[in-house]
Amino acid sequence: MRGASEGTHRGLSQLAVQPSSGSRLPGIEGARAVAAGSVLVYHCWLFASPDRGSPRLGPLTGVMPHLALGVILFFALSGFLLYRPFAASVVRGVPGPGIGSYLRNRALRILPAYWVILLLTGVALQVALLRDDTSKLQLGSLALEPTTLVKNILLVQSYDPDTLLTGIGPAWSLVIEVAFYLVLPVLATLAVVLARPARSRWGRRAAALTPPVVMLLVGLAGKTVAHLSAGSSSGWEADWHSVLARSFLANADLFAFGMALAVLHTEVRDGAVVLPRRWRAVALAAAALAALVAVQVTPDGMGLGVARYDTPMAVACSLLLAIVVLPDPRPSHRRRLASLLDAPPLVAVGLASYSLFLWHEPLVYWLREHGLTVAGAGGFFVNLVVLAAVAGALASLTYRFVERPAMARKRRQPPSAAATPAAPTGRPARG
């Protein structure tokens, strides 16, 4: 059985297109699966009931709203994975990824699947979110709103109160991701410039840590402005406060901790930083504490708007991600969390997680509007099974026939920066 399981695992891994950085990290697909799955469960609970109410689930009721943190985990993953080759090149003093190839790869990764699913759900199924004359969200066809359609195609819908949260609802976070994709090369260039006069690895490390610090400061500043301008707005309405609250400026800090982890990952792999033997237990305790602060300790009305919640949650997500991607200083110690996340079912879901993330909410609306959902606590679990099956099937199709062919056209980055450890000599590596 073990041999069969390992064979299945290798087969699933081979379905994934090799990352542009040239290396695959165990547990990453599983982390994506957890992020997408948590958001799917949350939206099923929030929107699937035919009476449009969220069912009471006993002790689980208080947990359900926090499943939205899957979006925060996606941001932490993006910060870590995308900054990793840039950080490695700065710290090691070697050439980094080409900006043109990087931008082309990002476009191939997100646009084809997004456009296909947007047109299928927003035009064919007619379950796009649209703003009516009173700015309330309703379901309809994007074909009847060409301006809204174009803004969604270009992923700029979040910059206008009249189109904020339209199209595919969760795509508001994709707008933020795109902004991060565009800003990252600028920040990486800043790190390169700062690293040039450095005479030691410590100086290059400080330069590589500058972009995450900038992201943290920008995000907290954006949250401060959003908090001061909130008034009675919830941050999910058709107003300029909500535009700011759903913008990159107010969410940049959520990428910062994953970016800092990318620097630490390089240093640990190169032997320039040695982790304490029991750092995993400390990281797990710190993640639990950060989550507790976010959920229980910080009272309403305190802090910088939603920063009192999502910034500590970003810390928690990044600490858990560190447990997955950083090596254990005890060679014989089994990395349980990474092994669990590398289980074949989670790897399979993780590979199609992007399509799953885009498909699931429009499908919730379609199933509900066609009388295919059930009310009540028991109905929630029925709805969840149906939604997971339908969304999973469609996600697997778009992954197979849209995502994979597009990713196969990505340009490979040289593996030297992100994948090949350099000796921690304090001198630039020679290519």
Describe the protein:
The protein is an all-alpha fold. It has one domain. Helix content is 62%, strand content 2%. It contains 15 helices and 2 strands. It has helices at residues 2-15, 28-47, 70-92, 99-124, 146-153, 171-195, 201-228, 240-245, 253-269, 279-297, 307-325, 336-341, 344-351, 353-369, 376-407; strands at 128-131, 137-140. Strands 1-2 form a two-stranded antiparallel sheet. β1 (128-131) and β2 form a beta hairpin. α2 (28-47) crosses α15. It is globular, with a radius of gyration of 22 Å.
Write the layout of secondary structure elements.
Layout: H1 2-15, H2 28-47, H3 70-92, H4 99-124, E1 128-131, E2 137-140, H5 146-153, H6 171-195, H7 201-228, H8 240-245, H9 253-269, H10 279-297, H11 307-325, H12 336-341, H13 344-351, H14 353-369, H15 376-407
